[in-house]
Amino acid sequence: MGVRGHFDEVAEKVQAMLADMKYGSITIVVQDGKVIQLEKSEKVRLK
């Protein structure tokens, strides 16, 4: 997979994570210039 394909895959996964999330954060972990991990931390607001 080329750089563009890798970027497209990461972008799709981040987009899918964002679709589920109301509050929280997404951390992108990069090693040697490549994304190796996506971390999702979601907050639940109680009223």
Automatic annotation (TrEMBL):
InterPro entries: DUF2292. Pfam families: DUF2292. It comes from the Bacteria. This is DUF2292 domain-containing protein.
